[in-house]
Request: fold
Amino acid sequence: MKVPKILTAIATAAILLATSAGVSAETKTFVDGVDWKNRVITVTGEGVVPPDAVNYTQAKGLASKAARADAYRKLGEIINGVRVEGETTVEKMLTVRDQIKLKVAATIKGATVINETFLSDGGYRVVMQVPLFASSNSLASAVFEKTSAVEPFPNPVLEVEPSVAPYGSTTPVKQRINVTTTVTVQEETVTPTTPYRSPLSRMSVKSLDSIILQKLEANSFTVQQPTYQQPVPNSQITADVPTSSTPVRRTVAEYASLAQGDYTGLIVDCRGLDLQPVMSAVIKNSNGTKIYGHKNLDIDKVISMGMADYVDDTENVARAGENPLVVKAVAVEDFNSNPVLAIPDSNRVLIENHATKFLKDLKVVFLFDE
Reply:
């Protein structure tokens, strides 16, 4: 027997009225999207009670199911747009690696419900989160491949003296950030002047001819026979022998001995450069050498911790420790995702890292404009 539509509407209204007493209070607001500071992806899914629900339990269950389906869909859309490195998004990785596609799908299905509410109007709201970084069920664990090979950190550029930090070990972190200045290249201003002409160029042809004739008569010209040196075989070349124009090569231990302070981490000030957060950031020097990247690190640590904290204030830089080295980025590259340091600053970073290994421990903070 078919139930008239008016009776169905009355039944639904009765269910909604009955649920109003058990509606959860909406006391907290959640913002959908990628939160790089807290390293989490948040979505809010919504569903409604279907008109053919016959009791409270069924109404709540069907509305909850619809809300969860909506949340999963939103998670997939947001995750696809997350940048892993440079211009590479998760969506691009899914098109070439089926294994990653399966892992990402499993991560979405394993999202954590952090809040759910049965609303007085018959709607249902569920808030879900997926961590960007965690040892399991995180986006990082789905997209990063575990490899055993770890590349060593590069040595400083031999020809360039490292910068000297303009603060001491007792200087507060906020003050360190304030006194760290941007490295700029001063362009030389050339004042237009009368072009220089050598004395010979100002002589007449007749004068030049008379001078040459006099020199010839005095037999003052001598011809120097060229000398040739036999090439040295490659086996006899010693690259590490210093000369007056060749910088001295040092071992890692020797570089560590040049450390200025017992630094606990690194803060890279990228404010004003429009830095765009990514999951796998790379720090370069102005020569293009990568001085910090996931290939230099234990991939398990990268998956669980992330490579750096992104913060927009000086209050949340604890990851870099109590005695951080602070440097100013001079540019950002690769779709504004990778900070670039001047070579003197990158040399200082590498020297200090050889001493205290803070890069290996992922004690890195990026200060940026959110």
